[in-house]
Each structure stands twice: as structure tokens, then as C-alpha cells.
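Holo prediction. Input below; ligand is zinc ion.
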Amino acid sequence: MEPEGPMTGRDGPGGRWVGRKRDGWKGRALSGSEAVEVREFWQRLGLPGLVDVHTHFMPERVLKKVWAYFDAVGPMTGMEWPITYRHEEEERVALLREFGVRAFTSMLYPHKPGMAAWLNGWAADFAARTPDCAHTATLFPEDGVDRYVRAAVEGGARIFKSHLQVGVYDPGDPLLDPVWGLLTEARVPVVMHCGSGPAPGKHTGPEPVGRVLARHPRLRLVVAHMGMPEYGDFLALAERYPEVRLDTTMAFTDFSEAFAPFPEGERGRLADLGERIVLGTDFPNIPYPYAHQLRALEGLGLGDDWLRAVCHDNGARLLLGNG
Ligand SMILES: [Zn+2]
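Structure of the complex:
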């Protein structure tokens, strides 16, 4: 992806969107005031926009299943999870552009064998028709995983997603060992849902992935959701391994603070790791507006330099490939 690609058509004053064709636009009117709020956030910081390393785009029928899951979560657990951005794909992409998200991802993940290569094909196609979306790929411990991961990397994949909770696999599975080696070598990051939130899984928590890092200490692991709720343990992995990062996805929001509060006493560590915390949001599958994630980060009180690094610079280095 070319860094300037996402900025196409965005050359009005203050990076305002100008002259964008709306032919064929079928969606409902965009939430104008929310876009204004998001844009004011990064404009005040003097940023060219946001970089969001953790957003979800997937084949329609897979996404419908994910949404059905979140719809069922409420009645099952008493934890309501209304999807804020339940729109057609075209409208979801347009919304991120209205927000000024310069680069984002299509985090995909299989829950069973035989699915990852197909998802990777979809993601490559999506990235090809969506220049501001990084070419994303995924994996599963199965025969041939090293082959299709290599093919994805050679095909230009910029970031991988691994979901230990949904996939119910051990990241230390021997089938994945060559894969972690390959990604380390290629310096391609992998966003991993390895924390035990919202509920513990068989292979979640800091230990299983910690064993992978012991074998592959330069793996560019991005711990999703700040490792919620094991924040401190995952911060410790980032302190120990210089290529480990954490994404902010859903962390610090009112929603997450209600069941997995970030410990007050750990804020200093967030400041110290400011170069390795990257904006992620879980758009569109979030039970609150996008701007709330940004406000939650601002509310940590770690200052504008920290916000600039987290909301743009760190993610840009990771996705747009300069460092
Ligand atoms: Zn996610």
C-alpha cells in the first residue's frame, strides 16, 4: 500500500475530504457529527489522520455470523453488545474514510481447519479494491499452514491475525513454529487475541504466547486488546521483547472498564511503552461510537505526544512499512 494512496481526494483545507464521488452510494446518510468529532480529535493533535491496526472486514456471511454471535451474547450473559456500525461494507469503508482513518486492516480469523487460505484469498482481494486497507492474512495450525502463510507474505500481506480464543489452538503448536519463524524473518506483524478477555480460553493468557516469544524473541507480536484482562503480564512481555506491541482495541472504554478495568497503577508503563502501543478499535463490531475509543485514550492523561504516537505514528510504521 502506498502511503499517499489513502489520502487521495483528501486535499482540502485541514485534510478535508473534497470532490469525492458519491455515485452509486446506497447507504444511509453518514453520521456527520460523529465524523466531525473524530476529525477534530486528530486535527487538534496536528496529525494527518488516524491509523487503526484492528478493524474487521470479512466475507459477508462470516460477518453476519459474527454479528449473530454478538446479538446472542446479551441474552446469554447479560452483557449487551449492540453493534454500532451494522452497515453494508461500502458504507463501513466510507465511514472510516469520513473519520480520517488513513490505514486500517481486515482482521479475519478461522474457527476451524480448512478456512484460513480461503479467508486469505478474500482479504487479498479486499485490500486490492480498498487501497487504504492493509493486505491482511490469517492462519490456523493445520497441514499446509507454512505454505499458505509464505504465499500470503510473498503476495504482499502486511499484517496477520491470530485468534487463540475463537480458534482454540495453542500458539506453541509445532505446526506453527515455522510460521512464527517466517513472520519474524519477514518482519510481518501478527495481531494476536491472546488475552483472556472477555472470557478465558484454553490457550489464552500470557504463558502460551510467552513460550512462542522465548523461541522467537523478535516476532512482531501485537497483543490485541492490550491483553485484557491480563494487562500487566502482557505489558511485561512488551518490556522484555522489543518487537512486542499492544493494540488499544476496546481497552479503557467505559464498556471494558466495567468488566476488565485497567489498573490505575500501570499507567506509567503505558507512558514508557509509548512507541509500542498502537490504535486498534474493533470497528465495526463495537457497542459504542468510534470516537469513544479516542476519548478513552485521551482520558488516560498521558499527553499529546503519546496520543500522536499511539493514534498515528506507531501504526503507520507498522502498516505503511517505514520501520
Ligand atoms: Zn477484534
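Residues 60-77 form the longest helix (18 residues). That is the main takeaway for now.
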